[in-house]
Amino acid sequence: MNRTHENGPITVGLVVGSSRPGRRGPAVAKWVAETMAGHPAARAGELTVELVDLAEQRLPMLDEPVPARFGDYRHDHTRRWSSVVSAYDAFIFVTPEYNSSVPAVLKNAIDYLDAEWRGKPAGVLSYGARGGGQAAEHLRVILGEVGMAVVPGHVELQLFTDFQWPAERATDPTAPARIAPAPQRAAEVALMVSALVDAGRGAVPVR
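Request: output the structure for the sequence above.
Response:
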């Protein structure tokens, strides 16, 4: 149910795709939101962004007896999640890489719904020791399967180059670290946001 806009702001849901204690997803999403705020479309009031934290949604593992494509939701938590997703025109998914793919909580949240995703533009930002590229590629396939219009390319943040670590724990992936992306990362996010805006306006094809 794509709501292509000619007028009015495009609302983007910024999905935090991990629920693990100690996760870096909220910090990454916060940086993405701050970067998006400087985009010309946001400054012009053509784009708004809101955080969608899957840890706060608290969805159980998929427990709907009817496949999502039929839209016959039997549980209140599914109907609540449907309302959340339906409120946005486009999405950016922020995902870590777990065992060369996406976290179970993110796949589960996508699997709950169908029509609510279809036709909506989506961007992907991954992070991990090597940037999370395998997770990003898997996620692009999953999003395509539920009919999302995934914009070309994605943004990758590497844990040991785009974060600042305490010197004494520089090789410890569990150590607290401050997100400090390389300068080109903001430009990559801006390109992704521009593609989302264009897709939301129906201006360019996406794949």
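The beta strands are 10-16, 47-53, 90-96, 121-128, 149-150, 155-158, 163-164, 178-179.
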